[in-house]
Amino acid sequence: MANVAVVGAQWGDEGKGKIVDWLSVEADVVVRFQGGHNAGHTLVIDGVTYKLALLPSGIVRPGKLSIIGNGVVVDPRHLLDEIAAIARQGVAVTPENLKIADNATLILGLHRELDAHREGASSAGLKIGTTKRGIGPAYEDKVGRRAIRVMDLAEPELLDEKIERLLAHHDPLRRGLGLEPVSAAAIRAELDAAAPGLLPFVDAVWERLETVRREGKRILFEGAQGALLDVDHGTYPFVTSSNTVAANAATGSGLGPKAIGYVLGIAKAYTTRVGGGPFPSELNDAVGELIGDRGHEFGTNTGRRRRCGWFDAVLTRQTVKTSGIDGIALTKLDILDGFEEIKVCVGYSLDGGRIDRFPASQAAQARVEPIYETMEGWPGATVGARSWAQLPAQAVKYVRRIEELIEAPVALLSTSPKREDTILVRDPFRD
What we know:
alpha/beta, 12 helices, globular, 431 residues, 4-stranded mixed beta sheet
């Protein structure tokens, strides 16, 4: 049995929630290993829709252990609200089925305010497109070695000293930005209020994961966002603040890389992204609008409309390499039903020449033009298909061509938001 890491192979919003939920039936433990509540997963189970942001997708499955790893930045207020929200839907979250890494970083109110101020003050061309939820500033404090972490809530006698260290950075920063200072007493009150709700879930997650791994239990590592938003390997600076590639499943949970046996990448049968940044295959026309409407392309947590375009095989092939993806779960194939022709980006034109990778240079990224291959569409429906035999011949041809272009096999094919509408080619847990 292989432990499985699930990562987005595009810019996020690829339908990871459904796939992780589908896989969680076989998993014993589901681990969220990076990001914050800036990424949402939508699960539809027995007709009930669950919208999650910080909680791992396994939380809605009885008998599963869900873990928020050290690579996640945790907003206590949001997490406790999220726990209360799904409790109203009948899902009990207890210290028995949820563990939070004791060394995870906290998001505080001053992080949210700083994030919103920066994004609001930026000119149109400089906006990153953050959710203004404090994720970036919290990661900055983490790498700046001044963050307040979950474990610090259990040591109230040391909190004032840690707050002083935090404000030694934020006070001059806020003055320079024209923001009102934050009092140490306000931060202390915020932390004291969060402690009772959070501390019962706290654990040495790395140790618990090593124990369950040695017991032979199956671990599912759940990433947020997508590999193209990775702070190192994505479309910098229009990226998130953490490493979203599969290697961070180890770092963000406290296990070694050998603990991950199979990497499953999630990709839509077309391409979307939210926020600013380059998007070579974006369609600013009626076709792009139609794809967005059909695919209900709005952010789970933010409601922002996603930008839509044709499938970019160059970018997805690149994420296959940078994340070590063993197989792809291709989602939303049904959204392309009925198109007379479908285009796939197979390369880029840059300054008169052709390139077959996405350049790291921000200036070059803005200049690349897509090179398309046009394929015949299919008149029949793929929605709800649960076997290859139920797919139109041209839809199968489209999937096979994607496999060739991205140099990775399709392990699962999703044909609707319903968990059962999934064609299994290879079981990642048994590959």
